[in-house]
Amino acid sequence: MFNPKLIYAGLVSVSLCIDAAFAQGLDPKVFMEPPSIYRPTITIDEGAGYNAPLEQAAERAIKDLQAGGILVSPQGDPERKKPFDFATLSKLRVGLLDEYPEHASPWLPKALPGEARFGSYLNDGNAGPGKPPSLGYMTPEWFSTIDKILDDTKSNDLYAIYYDEAGFPSGSADGTIPPEYYRKVLHRQELTVSGGQPYSSELDPETKTLALIATDTSTGERVDLLATAENKKVSWVAPPGNWRVQHYYVATSSAKGTSPDYYGTADYLDPEATKWFINASYNRAHEGFSDHFGSTIKYTFFDDVGIFNDEKTWHPSIDERFKEITGKPAAKYYPALWEDIGPETAAARVGFFKARSEILGETFPKLITDWAHEHGVKSTGHAPGNYDLQPTDTIGDPFKFYAYTDVPMADVLWGVGFARGGFKLISSVSAERDLPLTAAEAFSVNNDANGYRRMIELYIRGFNHFITGARQPSTPISTPAEFNRWAGRSSYLLQGGRHVADIAILFPIESLQAFYAFNAKEHSADLPSGTFAYQNADYQAIGEMLVSQLHRDFTFIHPDTLASDKIKVEGKSLEMKNRVNNEKYRALILPGGDVISADTLLKIKEFWNNGGTVVATSQLPSRSAEFGRDSEIQSLVSEIFGSSPSSKINLNSSGGKSAFLEKPDPVSIEKVLGQAGITPDVAFSNKPIPKSGNGQFGYIHRQREGNDIYYFGNSSDETVETTVKLRGQFKALSLWNPHNGTSVPVKKSRRVKHNGEIYTEVSLSIPGVSSMAIIGSQG
User: Fold this and answer.
1) Which of 89, 541, 602, 671 is the most buried (most CB within 10 A)?
2) Nearest CA among 304, 272, 310, 271 for reference residue 187
3) Are the C-beta atoms of 213 and 225 separated by less than 8 Å?
4) Where in the chain is the domain with CATH 3.20.20?
5) Mean pLDDT computed over every residue of the chain
6) How does strand 222-224 pair with strand 208-216?
7) What pLDDT, on a 0 to 100 scale, did the predictor assign at position 93?
8) How far apart (Å, rounded) are the C-alpha atoms in residues 609 and 630?
């Protein structure tokens, strides 16, 4: 395990000196003492875990913990304080389970030993002299106190983040938001009508009716009764047969009266509700701290904005967006949200859920970002379940949700190992959008072994900016200041630049959306939120096999992006066209799922036709995300994978390779990549897969300012001894130790050839619960 006083060589034949051999553009002096912008932000109130007056908590964070920044947030009015709903929270379907119901997807990740549900989250480290009474919501006393803290923050050359709510989720302005702006929910009422029976309905102007559909229970024929309305009245005589008449309408929800309350908050799909909240929170904060916004205050932070915790969260504007996406009126397709309506089910569900996801991203997150830019700051924040296997009922679609946010953020919750497979979704958004930062709210992360474990695993998954708590863990392995300097040094190396990954995994959002149905009996109460997915939903598991077992990095790509001009087929590669993060993929993995956009599959076929490698797993698509193109999907799949898809390489005349792994595992994935000639960017001898301490070993490779930066992380308790092969020929290599700030030249390395490519081979030793970087320039 990591010893904070240890200065270890880590590589054979190195000397503790600093010389001109270091990679240009990275400064060892800056690395030794990382500036505040790289060190973690520490919250002094919401989620801090250190209970003290705000001034005392801030002074401790600045002086003792050596925070890079301070998170400031409104406090609630004591007279409006809602009782915390412990009973509901204890029953909340969250976290990972040791075992899942029999009907659940077998690809759901299981909890590590001792980490089921809440696991080790927030179970240690609460400290402080005690929290005084609240200063109240946006009161003069609160403004005065925070203004002094911001002055102190500025005088110490630190920065601040404005967290926009008293508690969570964002959007209620401490419970003062008018009820007409609350979240809206889709409802369905149903009655049976026999053939020849008249049916009539007065359309209530107070009820926002979206559809009135009559369905023949024998043939499935659907009739749009709303289209026949005259003078706000529907009159209809049922044809022969038995009919179900379903009324679909949107109603505004009611507040729960307890905390947290996801209903008594702004409708995140409604621009007017969002603008009300911006005025109540952001504008008032700016009025009080106008001298600090854009200087001391560099970011804003929204919390838990999304679909959770009601799958039927809805807005009337979804209808128009559905028509824009599909070319069809929405009304007749509402039954598909609850039940199978035949061959059009998949396209209808994709249309609705895609529309909802786009509108969500374009409303609350985008309007907050617009405000932030107008006031000289950048936006960050997250949705609930941003890491979940099934995002439809939590975040909607992470790529759509974060489409405008300046710094996509993950919510690092629950026990060690939770969301390992999903965290790459958020960093993949940053990769796609060419963003230099990916943030994590990690209030439970501090200077004990588990704190280092979580941060190490996040770094190797693409995160490089952190907001932490201020707890005092009972078993620290370093001082808080050492922990924050280690994090600052790591972030200094990993912020910005180009992410290097040879493999892309298609994010199967369309299969996930096509599967999802409201009130599904299989969506049982014993399934955690965000886990109601189809049987072959293997995409996160495939990603984890690559990262933690095969040590091959990857990027998730969205089907809309793959189909667009942003990703081009260049020779035998797929190239994501960004100004900085210009990623080039040698192979594309098509994970299990039965629904895909025809335009996306056409791009995949173009890649394969041009000599690219495509590997499919678990289930091949057979249905289109668009209406009327199922046969096109089936034909394209047959062309790419052959009439009898198998793990045997299917080779075309241009050298394109494809294979189908019906039961994927690390061995079969590694084998097929090897047969396809996809050599690794980074390779290790003896396949280090440590597991002690619930840990892992992994790496991330970035290029910046002419340097290749290889960051290695070992979150296990055991030392990893291996020989690492770095693709390319290097003029100089150096070892950078983020635990103590030293940077030393590598004196011994050798060049080897593997599958026709040149590698540089170096011995590597990384103790448990620690990290190390190798930096070099090729030439």
Assistant:
1) 541
2) 310
3) yes
4) 43-177+266-311+364-497
5) 93
6) antiparallel
7) 64
8) 21
CA distance 125 to 331: 53
Phi, psi for residue 599 in degrees, rounded to 5: -65, -35
* Helices and strands (H and E) in the chain: how many: 19, 35
Three-state DSSP state, 638: helix
Secondary structure (3-state) at 392 = coil
Residue 88 has pLDDT above 70, yes or no: no
Residues with Cβ within 8 Å of residue 396, at least 6 apart in sequence:
306, 307, 353, 356, 357, 360, 361, 383
In terms of DSSP bridges, do strands 378-381 and 297-302 run parallel, antiparallel, or are they unpaired? parallel
Judged against a pLDDT cut of 60, whether residue 662 lies above it is answered with yes
Residues 6 or more apart whose Cβ sits within 8 Å of residue 283 = none
Provide the token pair at 109: 């990740």
Are 696 and 769 in contact by the 8 Å Cβ rule? The answer is no
Look at residues 145, 76, 503 and name the one whose alpha carbon lies nearest to residue 289: 145
Name the burial class of residue 155, with classes exposed (0-12), middle (13-18) and buried (19+) by CB atoms within 10 angstroms of its CB. exposed
What is the per-residue burial (b if ≥16 Cβ within 10 Å, else e) of 216-247? beeeeebbebbeebeeeebebebeeeebebbb
pLDDT tens readout for residues 615-635 = 999 999 999 999 999 999 999
The 10 Å Cβ neighbour count of residue 145 is 18
Residue type, 723: T
Q: Cα–Cα–Cα angle for 127, 470, 59, nearest 5°?
A: 95
Identify the residue whose tokens are 């009266």. 257
pLDDT tens, residue by residue, 730-766 = 988 999 999 999 999 998 999 999 888 999 999 999 9
For residues 393 and 520, give the distance between their C-alpha atoms in angstroms, rounded to a whole number.
13
Q: Which CATH class is domain 1-26+681-779?
A: mainly beta
What's the CA gap between 623 and 347, in Å, rounded?
9
State how far the Cα of 75 lies from the Cα of 697, in Å rounded to an integer: 41
Sign of CA dihedral 580, 581, 583, 588: negative
The CATH fold of domain 503-675: Rossmann fold (3.40.50)
Question: Could you give the CA distance from residue 158 to residue 587 in angstroms, rounded to a whole number?
Answer: 43
- Is 0.70 surpassed by the pTM of this model? yes
Residue 396 confidence (pLDDT) above 70: yes
CATH number belonging to the domain at 43-177+266-311+364-497, selected among 3.20.20, 1.10.3470, 3.90.550, 1.20.1280: 3.20.20
DSSP label of 62 = I
β-strands 584-585, 573-576 pairing: antiparallel
Kindly report, residue by residue over 547-578, the tens digit of the pLDDT.
999 999 999 999 999 999 999 999 999 999 99
> Are 118 and 91 in contact, with CB atoms under 8 Å apart?
no
Strand segments, DSSP code E, in 521-651 are 554-557, 567-570, 573-576, 584-585, 587-590, 595-596, 613-617, 623-624, 650-651
Strand 750-754 with 757-766, pairing:
antiparallel
Q: Tokens in use for 123? A: 């179970």
DSSP per residue, 509-522: HHHHHHH--TT-TT
d(CA 412, CA 461): 13
CATH 2.60.40.1180 maps onto the chain at 1-26+681-779
Q: Give 259's DSSP letter.
A: B
Contact yes or no for 354/513 (Cβ under 8 A): yes
Residues of the chain with CATH 3.40.50: 503-675
Contact 664, 505 (CB under 8 A): no
Pick the residue with more confidence: 99 or 485? Answer: 485
Give the number of other Cβ atoms within 10 Å of residue 416's Cβ.
24
Tokens describing residue 105: 């997807």
Q: Which of 753, 648, 770 is nearest to 711 (CA)?
A: 770
d(CA 507, CA 543): 11
The Cα-based distances of 32 to 26, 29, 742 in angstroms read 11, 5, 7
**Closest residue by Cα to residue 82 from 210, 228, 256:** 256
